[in-house]
Structure formats: structure tokens, C-alpha cells
């Protein structure tokens, strides 16, 4: 920039960051609350979506059930109760609430009040994870938006998920921005981006990236490939390939957030890895644990930014940035009533930010 150009810009009005007022509303879709083993016969509290829920596994059907946590009788917290059959018992007066949310027993009453019904939340158990469906309109799950089956989780050739929950002081949309934010990979993740592309269609938004990484890869030949896919507003899985300790590795990452309220969300971060057939069970477990630690280290670089940045609804973008406004338009469909969704929020699009070697080309060289 020349001195003259700088002088001209100095006379312009400063750019004003805009942060719009927001009603309390949580995006429509499936949210991960934890791994399969995170819910058992002991009621578990879930502080999500600006309220409190109770999750438990039925003694008879073995399935996960999620209900509103507070008993409408006198406000008892069902999270402190116990499971009986497929119902959860309030610890205050022993009212029993079935998996469908209907009160099925009051030990001292001759008649159960007709209004004794609490909300039962749709639940899905798949890919070693437990999902809950959130919809501000109260509609049932959209069948086409059910998360895809991850065949690798059901294979003995892969480890189970290693999981960690990470609280973030921000909006969930800020996390989703990363799908298009090519420019942050260098300063935040020490990555050299060789190619970067996004596609969107319907409820899916995908990021394809090839690059190097100072923490997760080794040397000039240690390129990683990454395909990150959002299925809905909160469930994102990433498949990565590269080298670790001289060995080819293939991993799946889980980065699925669930809002606590309008100002905070929890990221359920997970790693599962393709086992080395030449390694022992203990060696494979150590390998996935080491990779989990490396990823957590890398991921916390994002966390430090999210916890301190402001919300900005009118980002000042340059020609080298990725399609931030595109991913925000895609995300907005989940904050829009179903009947009001516009074609531009869901239509098929592709955007190439950095043209270079494709994920397919690099994986073929890596032997995947």
C-alpha cells in the first residue's frame, strides 16, 4: 500500500461492527449429547437449549430416553430420581414419568391428573453416539436429515470414540464459520493450506482441504487431507489422513456442539482411529490417545479465540477469505421455520478458495 492510498483510507469513517439482537431460539436439528456409554441407568442432567433435561436408559427396553427435567407437580428435579422399568421417578413425591412423558403412577393418588404430561424429546442412538432432536417449532425429526451411518464405527478395524466435552463462551454459529474460514488455519493451527473447497446442498455443508500441519503431520511429505461434513447445524464429522510417527493414519473426528444457552455451548469432541493391524490392542489404544491429545492441543487454539472474540454479523471480508457469508446463509435454514426456508439457503453450490491438489489425489498417493 502506498502512502497516498493509506492517507485516503485514513480519512474514511471507521468500520462499525454490528451485533444484532437475538431472540432465544436454537437451531433445528440433531445434537450429540455424548457417546453411547455416557447415559446409563442413573439419570443424567443435561443443561441444554436454555433449559434442563434428564437422560436415562430404560431398565426394560435398554433405550435412551430424554425428558424435561422438572416435575410439574411441585418442581422436583428428575435428575435426582431413579429409573424404574422405562420410567423415571421424581425424588420429591415419587411421581413416575414414562418414556413418552406421561405420568404413569402416583403412589398416593386414586387418579392421575389428565394434564400430567411432560415433554419427551426425540432420541437417536447411532455411530456410537446419542443424539437429541431440537426443533423450535416442535415438529418431529426430518427423516432426510438423520445422520448417515458411519460404517467404520461398527467395524472391528477401528477404535471406539475417545471423547472430551469443552465449554465455549460464544454462539454455535461461530464454530460453524470455521467450515469456510480458510485464512484462520495458518495463524491459529499452524497449517499450510494447499487446497481448500466447500460444497453445500440441503442440510449438508462440506469442507475439503489438503495441507501441512506442525502438530499433526511430519515433514514435507506429511500432508494431511481433511473432509469435514456438517449434517445439520451441529453434527460435524471429519475424516483425516496423514502420517503419525512414520505410519499412515486415518482418523475420524467429531466436533458436535450443543448450546447451553444463547451465550455458551458445549463441544463434544471425539477421535476414533483405524487400528494398526501389526500393533497390539494396548498400542492401538495408546496411538488413539496420543492423537486425541494432539488434536485437543490444536483445537484449544480455536477455543482461545472463540472465548474472547466478539459476535460480528457484518464481517469485513477480503478477496482471500473463504465463503463465510455462504456458510452463514446455509446455517440460517436451521434458524428459519421450515415453511419459510428459501431456495438460496439449501441449493447446491461449490466454492474453491484455494485451487491445488485434490483430497482424492493425495489420498491415492498415501495408499488410502
TrEMBL record:
Cofactors that this protein relies on: Fe cation
Residue span(s) of domain Rieske: 30-132
BP terms from Gene Ontology: cholesterol metabolic process
Keywords, alphabetical: 2Fe-2S, Iron, Iron-sulfur, Metal-binding, Oxidoreductase
Molecular function via GO: 2 iron, 2 sulfur cluster binding; metal ion binding; oxidoreductase activity
Top-rank taxon: Bacteria
Keyword Iron-sulfur set for record: yes
Pfam families: KshA_C (PF19298), Rieske (PF00355)
SUPFAM superfamilies: Bet v1-like (SSF55961), ISP domain (SSF50022)
PROSITE patterns linked: RIESKE
InterPro entries on file: Cholesterol_7-desaturase, KshA-like_C, Rieske_2Fe-2S, Rieske_2Fe-2S_sf
PANTHER family assigned to the protein according to its UniProt record, in alphabetical order: 3-KETOSTEROID-9-ALPHA-MONOOXYGENASE, OXYGENASE COMPONENT (PTHR21266:SF60), IRON-SULFUR DOMAIN CONTAINING PROTEIN (PTHR21266)
Record's protein name: Rieske 2Fe-2S domain-containing protein
Amino acid at each position: 500500500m502506498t502512502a497516498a492510498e493509506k492517507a485516503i483510507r485514513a480519512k474514511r469513517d471507521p468500520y462499525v461492527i454490528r451485533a444484532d439482537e437475538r431472540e432465544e431460539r436454537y437451531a433445528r436439528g440433531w445434537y450429540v449429547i455424548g457417546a453411547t456409554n455416557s447415559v446409563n441407568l442413573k439419570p443424567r442432567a443435561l443443561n441444554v437449549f436454555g433449559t434442563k433435561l434428564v437422560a436415562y436408559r430404560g431398565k426394560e427396553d435398554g433405550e435412551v430416553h430424554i425428558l424435561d427435567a422438572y416435575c410439574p407437580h411441585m418442581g422436583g428435579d428428575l435428575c435426582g430420581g431413579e429409573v424404574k422399568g422405562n420410567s423415571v421417578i421424581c425424588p420429591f413425591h415419587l411421581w413416575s414419568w414414562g418414556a413418552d412423558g406421561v405420568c404413569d403412577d402416583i403412589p398416593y393418588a386414586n387418579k392421575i391428573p389428565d394434564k400430567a404430561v411432560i415433554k419427551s424429546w426425540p432420541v437417536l442412538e447411532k455411530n456410537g453416539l446419542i443424539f437429541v432432536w431440537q426443533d423450535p417449532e416442535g415438529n418431529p425429526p426430518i427423516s432426510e436429515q438423520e445422520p448417515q451411518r458411519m460404517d467404520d464405527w461398527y467395524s472391528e478395524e477401528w477404535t471406539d470414540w475417545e471423547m472430551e466435552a469443552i465449554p465455549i463462551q460464544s454462539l454455535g454459529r461461530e464454530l460453524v464459520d470455521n467450515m469456510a474460514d480458510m485464512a484462520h488455519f495458518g495463524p491459529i493451527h499452524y497449517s499450510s493450506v494447499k487446497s481448500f473447497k466447500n460444497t453445500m446442498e440441503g442440510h449438508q455443508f462440506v469442507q475439503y482441504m489438503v495441507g501441512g500441519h506442525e502438530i499433526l503431520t511430519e515433514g514435507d511429505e506429511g500432508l494431511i487431507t481433511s473432509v469435514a461434513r456438517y449434517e445439520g447445524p451441529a453434527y460435524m464429522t471429519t475424516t483425516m489422513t496423514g502420517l503419525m510417527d512414520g505410519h499412515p493414519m486415518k482418523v475420524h473426528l467429531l466436533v458436535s456442539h450443543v448450546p447451553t444457552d444463547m451465550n455458551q455451548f458445549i463441544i463434544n469432541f471425539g477421535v476414533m482411529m483405524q487400528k494398526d493391524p501389526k500393533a497390539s490392542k494396548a498400542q492401538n489404544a495408546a496411538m488413539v490417545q496420543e492423537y486425541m491429545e494432539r488434536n485437543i492441543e490444536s483445537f484449544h487454539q480455536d477455543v482461545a479465540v472463540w472465548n474472547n472474540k466478539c459476535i460480528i454479523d457484518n464481517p469485513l471480508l477480503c478477496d482471500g477469505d473463504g465463503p463465510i457469508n455462504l456458510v452463514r446463509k446455509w446455517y440460517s435454514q436451521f434458524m428459519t421455520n421450515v415453511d419459510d426456508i428459501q431456495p438460496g439457503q439449501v441449493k447446491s453450490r461449490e466454492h474453491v478458495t484455494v485451487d491445488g491438489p485434490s483430497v482424492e489425489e493425495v489420498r491415492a498417493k498415501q495408499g488410502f
